[in-house]
Write a structure and sequence with these properties.
The chain contains six helices and five strands; from the N terminus they run H-E-H-E-H-E-H-E-H-H-E. It has 155 residues and is α/β, with parallel strands linked by helices. Strand 1, helix 2 and strand 2 form a beta-alpha-beta unit. Helix 2 crosses helix 3.
Amino acid sequence: MWWWLATPVSLRHAPIDPAQKLDCVSYAPFRGAQSPLNSTLQISAEQIAADLKQLAAVTGCVRTYSVDNGLDQVPALAQKAGLKVIHGIWLGSDRLKNRMQIETTIALAKEYPGVISSIMVGNEVLLRGEMTVQDLAASIRQVKAQVGPIPVSYA
């Protein structure tokens, strides 16, 4: 039964119109041995800009998950590429790092309100069990209170 479920299926045509762009795509800038688990890694603006230039050909929006590893550069570079950003805030059990993620995102939202179309707070932090519902709700309220009309949610 498992073999049958995993059997490849040939498609006659792409599931999307090739003349259309995707609404949004998840974006992580890591290549080769680069890893988000390396907290000292900073992806260069040139590498991110090259990625966003390619993505602009197929989408009008990118979804990020944190401000770490140089991802804080995405809104400025997305603006140059003509892209919108669904900006993610990575939260976990480290309260100091959470505060940095939130403060950086709030500053970026204020600087790029026409680029950041929405903010996702937490990125599965409840699924990972690294934060309580009450703490997550407080973080969402904190962000929402400071970013004006930009929609704020949890993923």
